Amino acid sequence: MKLNRFIPLLAAAIFLLSQCKSPVAKLSYPETKKGTQSDTYFGTAVADPYRWLENDTSTETKAWVKTEQAFTEDYLSKIPFRDQIRNRYKELLNYDKFFGAFKVGDYMIFTKQEGLQNQSVYYIQKGLDGEAKVLIDPNKLSEDGSISVGLDGVSNDKKYIAYHINKGGSDWQTMFVMEIATQKKLDDQIDWLKFGGVSWQGAGFYYSCYDKPAAGTELSAKSEFQKVYYHKLGEKQEQDILVFEDKSNSQRYYSTQVTEDERYLFIYKSPGTDGTEVIYRNLAKKDKDFKLLFKGYDFNYYVLNNLGDQFLVNTNDGAGNYKVVLVDPSHPEKAEWKDVVPEKTEKLESSSMLGGKLFVSYLKDASTRIYQYKTDGTLEHEVPLPAIGSASGIGGFSTDTYAFYDFSSFTYPPCIYRYDLASGKSEVFKKSTPKANVDDFETEQVFYTGKDGTKVPMFLVHKKGIKLDGSHPTFLCAYGGFNASSTPYFSNSKVILYENDGVYAVANIRGGGEYGEKWHKGGNLLNKQNCFDDFIAAAEYLIDNKYTTKDRLAINGGSNGGLLVGAVMTQRPDLFKVAIPEVGVMDMLRFQKFTVGWGWAVEYGSSDSAKYFPYLYKYSPLHNIKEGVEYPATMVVTADHDDRVVPAHSFKFIATLQAMQKGPNPVLIRIETNQGHGASGASLNKIIEGETDKWAFMFYNMGIEPVK
Length: 708
Prior knowledge:
The chain is α+β, with helices and mostly antiparallel strands. It has a domain of 336 residues: Alpha/Beta hydrolase fold, catalytic domain (Rossmann fold), CATH 3.40.50. The chain has 11 helices and 37 strands. A hairpin with a 2-residue loop joins strand 23 and strand 24.
């Protein structure tokens, strides 16, 4: 426990006993009405007494939300150092941050967040030394910073850029178009987009969208029957041409791509978050019908560009770690493919084209390596990275001679580098300089043994020279799903942990993409329990190696990571002091009933299937809370505009937990308003409040007073 050196020992002890410890008496939680709803799955009856909380627009649910919000705020407001943490976090954030640069003809576009701005601002400058001017400032679109902006695509003539806005963190997007040279916004507007982007061709672009949902159902109803349209600049959305739809399959994602020379249009079909089928049309020949290029949905395919009449393709078909192949569309069968960049032992994380070159990014033990190739597969350069960390963003037009990429690591703040194709050298373009002294911190990577003997990597970040005496408050995180890789990144928020002699642990558990498709498949569908076992083993490693004890160990994860925390805290409630599941998938029997939840069945399976129901029921966090068990101090986090993992998951989970919790550990729900799925699109003010409450809740329940 940290003590203020200027307070006499006795006074300090009295202060800490009276102000720092969380209450030992069990809280009296708001009463939540229980219904009689029950469903039968393949002969098994499953009670769902809080089904009524799924109706997020009902007067009854809204009243429950207000009651729980007030209860949580009352608890958090009594934490004596809450304001201290908030003020320190603001200090740490108050500097200029740069990221996301790219080149468009003579112009450079990049993102900058000045100090404590709610939203990052897009800037444009002519040439490398030109004056930077505001291109789009989301902060002027709302008073509370709840509207965010994303860029969707640049026209091949480099004259126009499409961008979208999200309101209140919702996944729904409204798209607009701007003339780059003049920064003039055009009259074009496209509504009801979600997960798509645009592909320019001629005087317009292709995009995918949904029909307008019924009023009042925008944030909860299934998003189905996505369609592909072509929009011509200057026309109304009602005039757009329908390019593709499939009335026989309501649950398909569609995205488009046009080659830079505008000869080919590709449509990618997917039944969810994994697996694609690709069809294409020759625009130069004005073909009306689409042809099948790759049949779905067992593998993933992405066309990087065309080389004349052939296609460079990134795929995991026949290569669990992915590879790049050359495909002749007149003979697209796999036997005719030519390897350009064959599969390697490391995971090929991404690939792109720039200046007639091929760039391939690999993960080596969850950190980035980037290589430049000729399109025939000849290696030219390894892109020099400044440290072990994460890099992204290289890409551009065939005429470009240089490009930009972002780099960050746990102790390396975000920096934009300019990369020269001819020399293979990098130099700083825009650098972020944080308030924290990052030289005080260090990163180590350890490999621990999972339950079944699998070696799992884990990053550990902390002050230099800490003693392994079990004293350190430790914040263990993971994701473990959807082939997503947890790679090093810089977090201003985590500095608060480091300054309090804490350890930030990131476990690269199975289900992620760190080691290719085998690693991913080892933690999805009927192998999902491996994710939980890997996470539990990470916690045991931290305790056994005296980084921490179970009384100073917190676990955290968001979305699929929220599911992870919910499952692990119900399986091993004895192992952790604090659990903070954020926007988690807690009801594994009904996730497919809402918005885009159907798209996750390729990762989890579905309770509609006799094959998967028993397995899902066995680990579903909601259905494995037991009466009379003492669970960790828990703060469930969700938001009213989360239309990806709808808040009903968290509502039902906390209602059940509050009814069954034994002992004094508090179990609360923090429900953010006018915010969506996690920090996506959230204003900085919302992020500050959320991170403040996370650290305050954790330290308070560990009996630790943060340093001042």
